[in-house]
Every structure is written in C-alpha cells, then in structure tokens.
Amino acid sequence: MKHLKVPVLAINFKAYPTSFGVKALEIAKAAEKVAQEYGVEVIVIPPATELRKIVESVSIPVYAQHADPYEYGAYTGWLPVVALKDIGVRGILVNHSEHRLRLDEIVAIVEAAKKYGLETLVCADTPIAAAAIAAIKPVALAVEPPELIGTGIAVSKAKPEVITNTVQRVREVNKEVIILTGAGISTAEDVEAAIRLGTAGVLVASAIMKAQNPEKVIKDMAAVAKAAYK
C-alpha cells in the first residue's frame, strides 16, 4: 500500500452537477496539476459512476465516496470493496455525515479495505467519536461537526476547540493516523487555520465543486497548506 504524504487536500465531489462527466474530469485533472506543482497530496473523491474514468485519467489518489464490506456475489445495490480495488481506486471515504454508519459498519469497511490494500479516510463528528475511530486504525480521519457542513462557516474558525480536542484525544489512541479538518472549509485562510490548530490538511467540497474557477481555489488552498505545514 502507498502512504499518503502530508499536507493533504481531500476534495469530496459529492453529487453536484460538476461532479459528473466532463466537468468532474476537468476538476480531477486540475487537482492533479496543482498536486504536482506544489507537492501537496491532493485526493479526489468522485461519485461511483465517475471512478473508473478518473482513475484512468489522473495519477493522484482517487477515493470512492463509500463502499460495502463484501466480496463479489449476490449483493444487488451494494458496492463491494474488492470491486473498487480492481478498478484501481486507492481509498474510501467512510462515514461522511451525509452517509452515516454505525461503528460496527465502519469497522467492517476499514478491515475490508485493509484486506485489499486500500486506504480509508473516516469522518467523525466529535472528538470522542474521532478517538474511537482512531482505535480501528484508518489511514486518515476527518473531524466534521455536521451542523457546519455546507454552511461556509469553517469549523477551524467557529469551533476551533473541536479540532484541538480531537487532536489531543486521537493522539492518545493513535499517533500515526493523519487528522484532517472538515466542515465549512471555504477559503485558503480556513486551510491555514486548520493546519495551525494541529491537523494535516482539510476535507473540502462545495468551495471547490461550486466555484467559478475550481483550479484557482485548489491552487490557493494547496499553496497555503504547503506553506503552513511544517
């Protein structure tokens, strides 16, 4: 398994109009260009329908937005981890607040991903939840208070104590996991604040996917992340 570099800029495409087709591929290629220019780990997380095309088109890590801990078989409507492995996906976003899971389901997905050499980025809504998730040893976790997601109000500004408490609790359990900040990340300044508070980067969505110039936003965030992370 490859290992993520830091700092990290993880771009969750969600299911916006720009998350599909030509526009999705343009944003993924812009992310690749910025990653190469700034030496920052940029992860793209497109919808399942776009995964194969984007995996075949860019060299940066491509994660799925969800997966199910199944082998191939009679699993109508599910997305087996092994299938993602076979098309070249590098990792899985797990337990986003828009796709919440029970802890036992998170454990099952993380373990299935490990079996097939895939990385996992698991979301948590509180410092306590983050510590519990850290114990199952994903590659990365993102703390995201759900009430701030999509608001444009960054957790790094509105609730900085959530980030610092998360870092403290997680490090008591797991010193290796990469910790990211999510929820409301809108500007390069939000990225800088997240890193200054002790995390290794951000999980961002609408600020890029709904931007008039997504490449400029990615570039601005990557530049600040590179400068701020020491």
Automatic annotation (TrEMBL):
Active site annotation, chain numbering: 96 (electrophile), 144 (proton acceptor)
Annotated GO biological process: gluconeogenesis; glyceraldehyde-3-phosphate biosynthetic process; glycerol catabolic process; glycolytic process
Predominant place of localization: cytoplasm
Residues that bind substrate: 12-14, 149, 184, 205-206
EC number annotated for this UniProt entry: 5.3.1.1
Superkingdom: Archaea
PROSITE patterns (alphabetical): TIM_1 (PS00171), TIM_2 (PS51440)
Assigned keywords, A-Z: Cytoplasm, Gluconeogenesis, Glycolysis, Isomerase
Entry keyword annotation includes Ion transport: no
Annotated localization: Cytoplasm
GO cellular component: cytosol
SUPFAM superfamilies tied to this protein: Triosephosphate isomerase (TIM) (SSF51351)
One GO molecular-function entry: triose-phosphate isomerase activity
Metabolic or biological pathway, per its Swiss-Prot or TrEMBL entry: Carbohydrate degradation; glycolysis; D-glyceraldehyde 3-phosphate from glycerone phosphate: step 1/1; Carbohydrate biosynthesis; gluconeogenesis
Segments passing through the bilayer: none
Reaction(s) catalysed (UniProt annotation): D-glyceraldehyde 3-phosphate = dihydroxyacetone phosphate
Oligomeric and partner information: Homotetramer; dimer of dimers.
Family of this protein: Belongs to the triosephosphate isomerase family.
Chain's role: Involved in the gluconeogenesis. Catalyzes stereospecifically the conversion of dihydroxyacetone phosphate (DHAP) to D-glyceraldehyde-3-phosphate (G3P).
Official protein name in the record: Triosephosphate isomerase
